[in-house]
Amino acid sequence: MAWTYSDWDSQSTPTARLTRLRLHLAEVGDCITAAMTSQAENYDPRTLGTYYEALQKEKQLLLPQVSEVAADDPRVTAGFVRGRPL
């Protein structure tokens, strides 16, 4: 199977890498499900599971980088606005 989002690590910014990695995690997860229900005979769910875990570790490494970028970007704000009662 050719992965659509396996190029996540070649993206130019941490945010782009994280976004693409999340998409890749989804497609690997879908393949694991298909392999477990024997819709994809060519893949071993254990091998895919190991790969998925490695991708999850990469995601955990990227999260702080994205948080730092967001904290330094004045366009990014967090919070909420309280609405007036009806």
How would you explain this protein's 3D organization?
It is a single chain. The protein has 86 residues and is an all-alpha fold. It has a domain at 12-66. The protein has two helices and no strands. The termini are far apart. The model has no long low-confidence stretch (mean pLDDT 81).
What does this entry show, briefly?
The chain is mainly alpha-helical and 86 residues long. The protein has two helices and no strands.
Task: Give me the secondary-structure category.
Answer: mainly alpha
**Rounded mean pLDDT score:** 81
**Which range best describes the helical content: under 10%, 10-25%, 25-40%, 40-55%, 55-70% or over 70%?**
55-70%
Question: What Rg, in angstroms, do the CA atoms define?
Answer: 18 Å
- How would a crystallographer describe the biggest sheet? none
Low-confidence stretches: none
Number of strands: 0
N-to-C order of helices and strands: HH
Number of helices: 2
Distance between the termini: 54 Å
Shape estimate: extended
Sheet-strand content, in percent, reads under 5%
Furnish the topology, listing elements before pairings.
Blueprint (H helix, E strand, L loop, with lengths): L13 H23 L8 H28 L14
Helix pairs in contact: 1-2
Properties at a glance:
mainly alpha, 86 residues
